What does this fold into?
Amino acid sequence: MARRTAFVLLLLSLFCIISLAAATARSTDTSFIKNSCRSTSYPALCVQSLSAYATSIQQSPRQLALTALSVSLSRAQSANTFVIKMNKFRNLKSREYEAIADCLDEMGDTVDRLSKSFEELKHMGQNKGQEFLWHMSNVQTWVSAALTDDNTCLDGFSGKALEGKVKSSVRAQVVNVAQVTSNALALVNRFASKH
It folds into this structure.
């Protein structure tokens, strides 16, 4: 009986040690993300949207920037799909149809530019010097343009004539895309400055 009790205590001790080590590893995994996100415009959103990828990001500024671009692209695709569905609603005001059509163009451009940025950064490899700067310039330009597209979409809904559920629904989707895209740009710039 004493051996069984000792064995159970040993197992409990090991379990506690392993749990503590795992908790420490998890907090270490996200500490790099938290520290990096401090340089963004929306740090809480940055941490929230990237923490789930801590294991793949580890301590890599490049992987962090890539993941941020991937998150932005995914959210832009979702927002684009949402706006497409909004365009199919009946009984919208003609001005709402126009704003949605313009927004669809802008969101399509956002998806395209974020996709190009992601692919460019993903395939950069170990580029150095002028080649690195050229590729990074492409990424930065496309992400900046995507952010401009998001804001242009929102501009189409300005004015009191468009107040209502359509505007607030589209705005919620596009603002989220703009915020994660802004964060991605900050993390891309941070990565670029380290080279």
